[in-house]
UniProtKB/TrEMBL annotation, chain A:
This is Uncharacterized protein. It comes from the Bacteria. It comes from Microvirga thermotolerans.
UniProtKB/TrEMBL annotation, chain B:
Residues 268-350, 403-430 form a coiled coil. It comes from the Bacteria. This is Large ATP-binding protein. Gene3D superfamilies: P-loop containing nucleotide triphosphate hydrolases (3.40.50.300). Keywords: Coiled coil. InterPro entries: P-loop_NTPase.
Amino acid sequence: MSQIDYRRNALRILFILVKGSRPAPGEAVDGFDYVFRGETKVQALDFWVRYPDYLADELISLYERTGLVEHLTAAEQIFANEEPDLRRVPMLRLYFGAYEPLDTVLGYLKSRGLILPRSRPMETGKDEHDFLVSEKARELIRQMVSKVQELAWYDQRVDLVLKVADGRGGYALKKRQHEQKEYHDAAHGDLIPTTAERVRRRLADLLGRGG
Amino acid sequence: MADEARRIDAGTLLAEIATKSGRPAEDVRAALTRHGVFFRPSLAVPKRLCIRSLRFTGIKQGEKAAGPIDFTWNDLGPGLWAITSGRNLRGKSTVLGIIRWCLNGRRGDAVPGEMKEWFHTVELGFTLDDQGYEVEIADAIAGTGTLWRVDGSTKRSLASFASEDEFESTMSDFFMGQLGLQLIVSHAVQGDRSIDQPHDWVWLSGALVIEPNPTVLFGAVATGGLATRMMQMYLGVPWTSANNDIVAAQGRLQNEARQTTAAFDRTRERRQARIKELDAEITDLQSRLKALPLEDDQRAELRRESAKFAEAEKRRRSALMLLASIEADLESAKDAHARARRDLQDFKDSRAANYVFRSLEPVCCPRCDEVFDEVRRAETRNDHICLVCGTPEEPEADPGTLEESLKEAVADAELELARQRQRHEALTKTIADAGDAMDDAEAACRVIQARLAAPSGRRDVEIDILRKQAQREELAKEDAAAPSPNGDLGVLKAAEEVTKEAYRPLQDDLLSEVSGLIQDYAVRFGVESLESVKLLGNTNLRLHKGGPPVYFGKQTAGERVRLKVAATLAIMKVAQTRGLGRHPGLLLIDSPGANEMVPQDFDRLISGLAELSGEIPHLQVLVAAVNSETIQNHVPPERRRSAAGDEYLW
């Protein structure tokens, strides 16, 4: 599968955008009544979906911070399902961290009337990209999850990632992700390396098991 | 024959004993000396004893005939003399008893105990050949006195005695020396004690007495071959003294050997029990020793364990060297497995995505947002081209085939992973096992080294075994060394045989001659129907009286008296003719008429004695008897001391 599977990426992004969207304030545009704000946040959330090991690490930190066992259980589950091996979809390290151009993917989604990208000028002079989400998209996700078994994972995973993100904005998430040494130290243009072994050890230590 | 006997000297005998016993002559001499056996050529010239005078004084006590005693009998000489009384118990036997007392120094039965205080002084004059002597008991109660040598009117003291014992030994020394007699030692065993009994003059002088009821032919004692010895001595058979000593010495040695053997047997049981005990202890110790490790074995074991350690270490090292590459292989297999599964997962995801997107017709151009109208939709559908970009649609590849191949790849990767895991596990196990083996070998080495450093206890057990073996050996040796008979016994046995050979021919010759004389005299003394007499070497007298042979002991007392007198006289006669024997020629015959002898037989004895007194010139016979016609007929009055009627002799 060396060839980029745009449809799969599109589907994943669709899940992130649909589930991470909120009703759009103000005037609705032709059936696009929800909005997901900020491409950086999409990239940050996508990174956690694509790197279950980093997500598990974050879950462990969350557990350590909050004492909530569900985080630890979720992290354990990730390793039990060998997700760091099976579900990892490597990302490139670019200037600001993990990044993958979304143009093609968004083309897929836009052409199907699911997502409508919008640029919004910022005070800084840069454009902020938002994504309008159609009701059709929300309906599609609902239907497909019940129809296609494979999609349940995306549904749940995106929920989990959103929960971990806890409403933080794209930059806050990036900052958080840069705190991971492996993420931060990855050379520009390289694939971000896995931290599976380190996190596995960290988890085992917490659970009181060797190695 | 006598000459022949004389020719054999002591040296010749010793040489013969040496040859017979197979021992050097000096050994033989030493052995014989050790046991008191001496070969002395003791063929002394016989001396004749003759009582010349008797005097005793004292005071007779008691109710009958009490009063002073003063008995004197002078001018006695060779020939037949009689002491007679009208009745018995008038002092006849006492006169003979006093003579014997003076001669052997022992008062004995001859002078009854109740008369002990009666006699105060006693003097007995006698001659040995022509030499005069006198025994003077100055104090008969205390037993003091003197033995005098009398030369004419001169008396010289030979010995004085101050007690009865001294008196006895004085007389014994005197007569043994003068008559050339030898002390006879007999050996007896009483209980388990070995006892040597010396027999000297008191015993030998028994041959001078004929008691009324004799039981043996010579002397008065019937035991231990003493009669034989007495006979041999008076016959003058040479070497008999030595022979006697040899027999006594053998008796002593045999008794010693018996006692030693008995003592040995008593201890043997204890010794063998101890040997058994020691055997068991040794066996036990040996099995303990076997169980104890040998130092060499331990060193070998240490080497083995060290080699095991080295081998395990080598195994571990090479496994460790291999580990990196196997781990790498395993990682690769894991990666490949993960990749295959990821591919499968990707495929499934992709298929789902395809499903999703295929179901969604594009509604607008993603680039320009132009919404596609129905016409375009219909055209592109009919033309089988993409609604958006016009690219001809390609038939969908069969996703089933792809999934299968992906699943196969997963299965292959799984197999490979399992294989690599197995390899890895095997290697890990090898490393762990080698590590365990190293630990085990190291622990074993430590144990052996500690054991080697500590004293093994082997040495103690070995020493214990050696000590017990030595004890056992010692006991076994002791047990094996049953007391061997004294080597001198062989010499003594040879000596006895040689000595017997040396004197036997002469003794046989003498006995034969004596036997003839006994027969002659016995017949003359009135022993009727005596066809032949044989005096045996053991002094038994075998008689033929017209029937099976009869022996001395079975004869009547009267016959025994006559046979005994005949035998004694026969010996004296042979001694006289041969110049050999040592009987001094004095005979004291006590009351022959007191036994069952009929007057006729008594007459024959007395007449015979009177007759023989003439034939044996030096013979002096003193007969104590009740006064009778026979005495009066054969003994002239001057040769008689008589008490008539109820009178006492003293």
